[in-house]
Amino acid sequence: MSKWMRAWSTETVGPHNLKIAERRVPEVGDGEILVRTTAVSLNYRDKLVLETGMGLDLTFPFVPASDMSGMVEAVGKNVRRFKVGERVISTFAPGWLDGLRPGNGRTPSYVTLGGVLPGVMSEYVAFPEDWFVAAPISLDAAEASTLPCAGLTAWFALIEKGHLRAGDRVVVQGTGGVALFGLQIAKASGAEVIVTSGSEEKLERALALGAGHGINRLTEDWVERVYALTDDHGADHIFEIAGGTGLGQSLKAVAADGRISVIGVLEGFEISGPVAPLLLKSPVLQGISVGHRRALEDLVGAIDRAGLKPVIDKRYKFGEFREALAHLDRGPFGKVVIEF
């Protein structure tokens, strides 16, 4: 193994400062494993961190991205969970192993890879073994890399927190990575899935993935269409991807005692909506900020059992990181992945 590796990094906030640099392969410390990166999947959050910093205390030179799959190349002393040669995926929020999120009401924790902690857009990483879980045996490296953030967010919303039941009506907004995981997980759980999108072509692809209905939000009132499709019952669960004032539409469309998972911030970091349906229908309004390691392990097991295959819109090469980031602005159908 070479003593040198390549990594993407930036010295300041702003994607135009991204460059590839050579640095030494890190040595493993006590309780750490050295992982050779095989794939990194991108989230829109990665782009926001690069462009704005998101108010995070970044360390420069900053290596971006949080979601990876890889192969264990070396283990440090006292490592018990992994062996050399095993395939692993990262956890988005290291330290959140199970149960309640770290932090408190005044200062909720947001210590994640590719943020306060180093990112994974490098050929090798050396992190504590607790920051990884075993990769699914049924997925290739690119597919496995999509699970730590997008896959787990959907799983946490629907299964861990949402207690989804067969027969539930689930509305999924859009056709990005989290949305399509929501579609697939809901369908595998026996739910009826309704997808909204502004693209007829993407709606057709969502129907082919198993959605029961597609609604073009640009040509029809999606709330009224949900009522029509559910005999006025409404949606038992809504993936609120847009945020902003769009929450008001979700409050109208949700069923009595239903659930809205606020996931995306595409329309801004402020949300608003009418109070009447919130009071009269008593829905659960839950914010989802990915999830803990135990839930990721549950997701891995479920994927291997169900044979679920993540949707990858395009696979890029290591040197095409800028092009892959630009792809996020075009609204990918599923995930954008960089293979090493």
Describe how the helices and strands are arranged.
Layout: E1 4-9, E2 19-24, E3 32-42, H1 44-52, E4 67-75, E5 87-90, E6 124-128, E7 132-134, H2 141-144, H3 147-160, E8 169-173, H4 177-188, E9 192-197, H5 200-209, E10 213-216, H6 222-229, E11 235-240, H7 246-253, E12 254-262, H8 275-281, E13 284-287, H9 293-306, E14 312-317, H10 321-329, E15 335-339
Parallel strand pairs: 8-9, 8-11, 9-10, 11-12, 12-13, 14-15
Antiparallel strand pairs: 1-2, 3-4, 3-6, 3-15, 4-5, 5-7
Helix pairs in contact: 3-4, 3-9, 6-7
- Rg result: 20 Å
Number of strands: 15
Task: Please indicate the count of domains.
Answer: 2
Mean pLDDT, rounded to whole units? 96
Structural class: alpha/beta
CATH topology category name of the largest domain: Quinone Oxidoreductase, Chain A, domain 1
Full CATH superfamily name of the largest domain: Medium-chain alcohol dehydrogenases, catalytic domain
What sort of overall outline do the alpha carbons produce when their principal axes are compared? Answer: globular
Q: Tell me the series of helices and strands, N- to C-terminal.
A: EEEHEEEEHHEHEHEHEHEHEHEHE
How much of the sequence is in beta strands? Answer: 25-35%
Note poorly predicted spans: none
The CATH architecture of the largest domain would be: Alpha-Beta Complex
Domain Enoyl reductase (ER): 14-338
Protein name: NAD(P)-dependent alcohol dehydrogenase
